[in-house]
Amino acid sequence: xxxxxxxxxxxxxxxxxxxxxxxxxxxxIGTRDVSEKLASTAKDGYGGPPFSEWHAQYKDxxxxxxxxxxxxxxxxxxxxxxxxxxxxxxxxxxxxxxxxIIIDVANPLDFSKGMPPCLMPELSNTNSLGxxxxxxFPDAKVVKALNTMWCGIMVNPNMIGGGxxxxxxxGNDADAKTRVKSLMNEFGWxxxxxxxxxxxxxxRGTEAVLPVxxxxxxxxxxxAFNFKIVG
Amino acid sequence: xxxxxxxxxxxxxxxxxxxxxxxxxxxxIGTRDVSEKLASTAKDGYGGPPFSEWHAQYKDxxxxxxxxxxxxxxxxxxxxxxxxxxxxxxxxxxxxxxxxIIIDVANPLDFSKGMPPCLMPELSNTNSLGxxxxxxFPDAKVVKALNTMWCGIMVNPNMIGGGxxxxxxxGNDADAKTRVKSLMNEFGWxxxxxxxxxxxxxxRGTEAVLPVxxxxxxxxxxxAFNFKIVG
Lengths: 231, 231
Prior knowledge:
The structure is a homodimer.
Chain A (H helix, E strand, L loop, with lengths): L2 E5 L3 H12 L3 E6 L2 H6 L11 H7 L4 E4 H7 L2 E4 L3 H11 L8 E4 L4 E2 L7 E2 L9 H8 L4 E5 L5 H4 L12 E5 L2 H14 L6 E5 L4 H5 L2 H11 L5 E5 L1
Parallel strand pairs in A: 1-2, 1-4, 2-3, 4-5, 5-8, 9-10
Antiparallel strand pairs in A: 6-7, 8-9
Helix pairs in contact in A: 4-5, 5-6
């Protein structure tokens, strides 16, 4: 399977797209409206260059609307902001997602109550974004993975600590988790550093890492870190 | 300052009490009703022996009601279950807490919705137990610390990984945090492994570690682990 759909055009989506291209995959990024996205000269939400500038350097990355990208991908990666994920995936359409692995790297951050963000109340504590996606798309295989760190480390664990730190995976389908772990191996993750936490309800745990992540980021003023389980 | 009050008679309180005794401190454990607690033959909530059996081995540990213990202690450690912490500290009385450091190692776990526990909605996400204690006792100096790991490791970090893993502290009073770090040094924590996350609102982050902690515990079936920040 060498065709990847990435839902979301932000830094996370760009990071995965360029990594998958470097690994020899075909990639299509899905966005609401391709021509509008390419025409926009607005900086991204974090002050980065507009999407068109990034894409000019990665012309091998195909672009489509959400449904076109999902139809193209053999695996679909959700790299939208958590507050928008369900709507974006609905626009991608269940018929284009059914039977496929959805790798969910997003977090249900709520920026409406000031910084640092909290979690969206309806998607935390007794629920999670990963579970909600699985509930809305019961015929897809949702694997929550890699959402507990900055995206640069998601696709390049060897950037810090010799790659010796921990990534979590959660999901209801064992084969889907095995496939995602294999992709993570291609990024440089060693199996001994990938911890399977069980079914998709474990996303309640991994998404709850974000409130401490943002505090650690605040204390260090540097997001290039990850958690290692010692013991 | 060599007098420590420990509020709570469970495994966490016992663990701190015996550690402080071994370090030469005077310790009083506070409980609602001393004679009732000593008369009880019920196992503790995790199936451990009744409190009286533990205390028979640690007769140097003084016992008092919540207010007597708080009045005795120069530093007060909250080792109650998070759901009971505010009530227990109210019984300890503000006049016995004012001006003192309250080390809060508790977590606002909600066991009412099944296992694994979630967090108490009113004490999580946009609030925390640490903040709530500081709000109810504005003249105490609350330091949230050590709540992200099993109690055996709190007082003995060298039990795993050569002690090279991370403990967080949060609180509004810099001197109080310095004092708590010094106590942690006595337990074996190296300063390079203690990360100050800022004011007491950062307890929203460290208490949110519990939802992933319980999932990791479930996957490993072993609580003797901790998180290390790598990067």
